[in-house]
């Protein structure tokens, strides 16, 4: 076959895929904005759009300033930021270890951050950014521990996942223990550390999370192409000029940083990190990097989950209960499928 | 057309010892890869063929000695720069689920792109040329996991071609392929070597195919280079005995004029030998 028609069709196909990618990401972004707008407009009561806009511009509006400015806006902003962080951190791990089960919330990193945050808040009576810092440090520590425990002539994906599940279970029982010793009036707070919630969100909580998303998200974006090459396997990636170990370290730091920061503010919102990547993969159909789509999906999951938990179910549930109910069946499905493929000849 | 590098680089392993964990698999191996030629590496299982390929492409660091590319240690060369000169196709690589042929082949352009540099026409040209050379144009939009073994191997070679390196290392590129696909892959690599002057180094299991397609044949044993040179000098009855512990006869292939090794076992000879297992009953 001749080169020039091939070249033309290669270029055509690439452009078509690029256009499709922009289109899909654009639609996801519009959906997210629409959901954000809806959560500001409609809660227990409806607030007219012009009132919402005036509140956002900083005006005092009777009847709207409190519900929109103090309740709905912080909640929505925090949901989006936490969702972005969980989505990015989760998919980064899944791509790096080439396994959807390798999500930070399955392999104990969220639990590590959560346990440290609970300990810092309940036992050490700490608050604010310091809690985030401790949570990030603990998340990294757990990542290191799981990695070290599963190291035997290199790290095999499945061994790391199993070790992570074990570590995760231990940390969860530690959280339950600390909470059982906590004074009764922290029960509301306690719920957050078991399932994850954006109840009582304040805009001041958003600042550390914004910083984390910018810093760690930037780091992750700078490694996005190398991370994508890791999908081909470590050897092929290395042959393509990717510094495999360096990329891995940077991706782990970035992903754990985001997951832990979000966990420190909103608790371990169940399965968002785990679900975002596979959903994004289904939507994108292998068209380019999954980082941005997963971030958008994560934000939508938290936003929609929280909205469902507040208004669409017979009783009020924290967002983690809703996302947990979504994620658990998928987890079972993956494990069943992994077993089947492992057993089939 | 894209311009291909015509000056061949030299690749030399210098007293290299390397392995996994505490055990050395390569023990002070010396090898000079002839530039612009096809080199085939043969040897018994676990003699260190793959380890040698992995060491020469920097997937493993040698414990002692060094690998030199144009006289410079490959560990001193930045990863991306090295990947523009030296390509490696690992043994049975696995494609990500659902990736299309065109997408996989374009991954070969990775070392040519910077952090923020956009996809250029040169990249498109390299991908198109690689698809044409490997006759995979018609497969471009198909998912790799739906292809047959032979097609899949051609696609992986296309990815390595898109990388446009002067040296290409391949670890058993014909494994799991039937004989016609094996020949197809080896013919393709020969075309590549003739047309672009690419230095090809491959590990092969089949001695006869190695002797037929290699300009330079390397036999390894026990982590060292046992003998190397022209196929007719390397593939001899004595060397086969030393490297594989196998009695054999060498004849000349009437088609290629290259040596062919015929193994001699204990059975199925015109003058049947006595079996060492006592007959039943």
Automatic annotation (TrEMBL), chain A:
SUPFAM superfamilies: ABC transporter involved in vitamin B12 uptake, BtuC (SSF81345)
Superkingdom of origin: Bacteria
Pfam families noted in UniProt: FecCD
Classification via Gene3D superfamilies: ABC transporter involved in vitamin B12 uptake, BtuC (1.10.3470.10)
InterPro entries from the UniProt entry: ABC_BtuC-like, ABC_transptr_permease_BtuC
Membrane-spanning residues: 23-42, 76-97, 106-124, 130-148, 160-180, 200-221, 249-275, 287-305, 317-336
Coiled coil: none
Keywords: Cell membrane, Membrane, Transmembrane, Transmembrane helix, Transport
Localization terms from the record: Cell membrane
Membrane topology: Multi-pass membrane protein
Family per record: Belongs to the binding-protein-dependent transport system permease family. FecCD subfamily.
Protein name per Swiss-Prot or TrEMBL: Iron complex transport system permease protein
Source taxonomy: Bacteria, Pseudomonadati, Pseudomonadota, Alphaproteobacteria, Hyphomicrobiales
